[in-house]
Design goal:
226 residues; mainly alpha; 2 domains; 2 strands
């Protein structure tokens, strides 16, 4: 199986687009809030969507209990995406003045991140789909928020990544992974859950166990009929 250098792996992960993430069509309203300045700065530095975070908290407190139920998949997705970002943005730890020993240490960290990414992809493939469409949509909203922030940050630091990546390429020639495997793992870890995923999960469930709500939503989201 052909292998590619570590820097090219990161380049591939940055360049492969991810589509199919759910989009929220809810009515929105602008509000003015007082927020701790230090916390606001940290959130902006990480390109966090404050409105989305607030909305999830309010849904958990006041929303439909069925719709705002705890998402069992969210802790896994959070750690998996954190690892994915740590892998992709690892070159930012390196500059032209970084000692070779420190560069190699970063390369070893990235190698562990890659191993974890592959393990996360395997876990994601074996996890059952969410049992409710609402849960699937909430997961997709989270993924959309994280990926939007990821794209924004990667655009800002792309030139710096290219320079640092060349340094990694020159010093980490012993770290290489298969291109197709890496692409598949990346897509698997951060791919959308629903409604497509929910539809497939419901198809595998005996129709005698479907609720009326399941039947109505299957017609609407999985067949295009209403």
């Amino acid at each position: 199986m052909p292998a590619i250098p570590l820097f090219l792996v990161i380049t591939i992960l940055l360049s492969v687009p991810v589509s199919g993430l759910a989009k929220s069509a809810s009515t929105k309203e602008s509000v003015t809030l007082d927020i701790n300045a230090d916390l606001l700065k940290q959130a902006r530095d990480q390109d966090l969507n404050l409105a989305s975070i607030l909305e999830k908290q309010l849904k958990a407190k006041f929303g439909d209990p069925e719709e705002s139920s705890e998402i069992a998949y969210l802790p896994f997705l959070t750690k998996a995406f954190d690892n994915f970002e740590a892998l992709v943005f690892a070159p930012l730890k390196i500059t032209a003045h970084t000692p070779k020993a420190d560069v190699k240490a970063v390369c070893q960290e990235v190698s562990k991140n890659i191993d974890q990414l592959l393990a996360d992809a395997e876990t994601r493939e074996t996890m059952p789909q969410p049992t409710s469409l609402e849960e699937a949509k909430q997961l997709d909203e989270y993924l959309q928020q994280r990926y939007k922030a990821f794209e924004s940050r990667s655009t800002k630091v792309r030139k710096q990544m290219q320079v640092s990546g060349k340094i990694m390429q020159a010093n980490c020639t012993d770290v290489a992974h298969d291109e197709k495997t890496m692409q598949k793992a990346m897509k698997t870890v951060i791919s959308a859950y629903g409604p497509t995923g929910w539809c497939e999960a419901l198809k595998r469930k005996p129709q005698g166990q479907w609720s009326m709500n399941d039947s109505e939503k299957f017609l609407k989201y999985c067949t295009g009929r209403k």
